[in-house]
């Protein structure tokens, strides 16, 4: 079973697992923020991730704005799009069952992907790495950009978790989720806060898309297949658990990478197998109840 497994193969797949886990963690974190604080099942998260990559590509191709500028501009553009989407599509169904938000955001996904595909086609568009080259570690080659993605992802996830869980703003957001009337008595506009929360979660998806553009080709479908995996990550970590989404994202990325080494046939199924086990033995999620209320 272990014949032919070289250090280069093992550590190479481990690196790919950490890279994938970085995207799983960031996307799942944004999804968990939106569901945990707003009770919105945002199926459009993958399309918003794709929009971040496309905005970065458009900024470079048509305006000459490089990656480092797009890293700040594209998430803001996608966040503004999310705010408009929340006001027009999600606000009218705010008091209805979660299923309606799932259906509305799924329909929005189909429209967004269809429009992008109609305009730019289905073929992936290349986006050159802003950090070419890398370092030879002896047992593997470490590209600089992929190292940057991992470090940036960890810092972003940690910073977001600290913001939500350990600041006054975060306490207001959590309180608005449980007792909006009490928060409004302090003069805080809760509906506006929820709109900005959705924009923030969507902006994280856009940020992930910018990070992904040099790693994967930019295409209309780059987020659709990924969303099923991201939902699995959120379910395993605990619906609405931010720290659960982060830790589960990284762990499942590593597990997926190692599975490609030891049992390649099961690499595409291992995350969903773990989700099935989690739903049977820990349906509330592995990290549910670990955060402040």
Structural class: mainly alpha
Distance between the termini: 47 Å
Number of domains: 1
CATH class: Mainly Alpha
Q: What is CATH's topology name?
A: ABC transporter involved in vitamin B12 uptake, BtuC
Mean pLDDT: 91
Unreliable spans? none
What is the H/E string? HHHHEEHHHHHHH
The number of helices is: 11
Helix content: over 70%
The CATH architecture can be named as Orthogonal Bundle
Molecular shape: globular
Strand order of the largest sheet: 1-2
Q: How much of the sequence is in beta strands? A: under 5%
Largest sheet, described in full? 2 strands, antiparallel
Salient structural properties:
293 residues, mainly alpha, ABC transporter involved in vitamin B12 uptake, BtuC, two-stranded antiparallel sheet, 71% helix, 2% strand, globular
Describe this entry's structure for a reader.
By secondary structure, this protein is mostly helical. The chain has a single domain (8-122, 140-281), classed as ABC transporter involved in vitamin B12 uptake, BtuC (Orthogonal Bundle), CATH 1.10.3470. It is 71% helix and 2% strand. It has eleven helices and two strands. The chain has helices at 7-38, 45-63, 67-90, 98-120, 144-166, 168-178, 180-184, 190-212, 224-237, 242-262, 270-281; strands at residues 134-136, 141-143. The chain has a two-stranded antiparallel ribbon with strand order 1-2. α1 (7-38) packs across α9, α1 (7-38) runs antiparallel to α10 and α2 runs parallel beside α4 (98-120). The N and C termini lie far apart (47 Å). InterPro entries: ABC_transp_permease, BCAA_transport_permease. The chain crosses the membrane at residues 12-37, 71-90, 99-116, 145-164, 196-216, 228-254, 261-281.
């Amino acid at each position: 079973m272990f014949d032919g497994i070289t250090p280069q193969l093992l550590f190479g797949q481990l690196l790919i697992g950490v890279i994938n886990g970085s995207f799983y963690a960031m996307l799942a974190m944004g999804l968990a923020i939106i569901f945990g604080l707003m009770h919105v099942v945002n199926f459009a998260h993958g399309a918003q991730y794709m929009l971040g990559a496309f905005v970065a590509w458009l900024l470079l191709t048509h305006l000459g704005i490089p990656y480092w500028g797009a890293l700040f501009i594209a998430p803001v553009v996608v966040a503004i799009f999310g705010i408009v989407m929340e006001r027009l599509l999600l606000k009218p169904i705010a008091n209805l069952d979660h299923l309606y938000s799932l259906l509305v955001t799924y329909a929005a996904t189909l429209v967004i992907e269809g429009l992008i595909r109609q305009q730019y086609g289905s073929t992936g568009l290349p986006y050159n790495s802003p950090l070419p080259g890398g370092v030879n570690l002896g047992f593997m080659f470490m590209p600089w950009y992929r190292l940057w993605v991992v470090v940036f992802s960890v810092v972003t996830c940690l910073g977001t978790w600290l913001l939500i869980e350990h600041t006054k703003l975060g306490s207001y957001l959590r309180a608005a989720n449980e007792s909006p009337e009490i928060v409004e008595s302090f003069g805080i506009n809760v509906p506006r806060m929820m709109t900005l929360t959705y924009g923030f979660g969507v902006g994280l998806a856009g940020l992930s898309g910018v990070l992904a553009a040099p790693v994967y080709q930019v295409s209309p479908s780059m987020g659709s297949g990924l969303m099923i995996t991201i939902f699995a990550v959120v379910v395993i970590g605990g619906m609405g658990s931010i720290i659960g989404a982060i830790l589960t994202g990284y762990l499942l990325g590593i597990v997926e990478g190692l599975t490609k080494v030891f049992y390649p046939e099961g690499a595409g199924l291992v995350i969903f197998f773990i989700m099935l086990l989690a739903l049977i033995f820990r349906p509330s999620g592995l990290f549910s109840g670990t955060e402040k209320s």
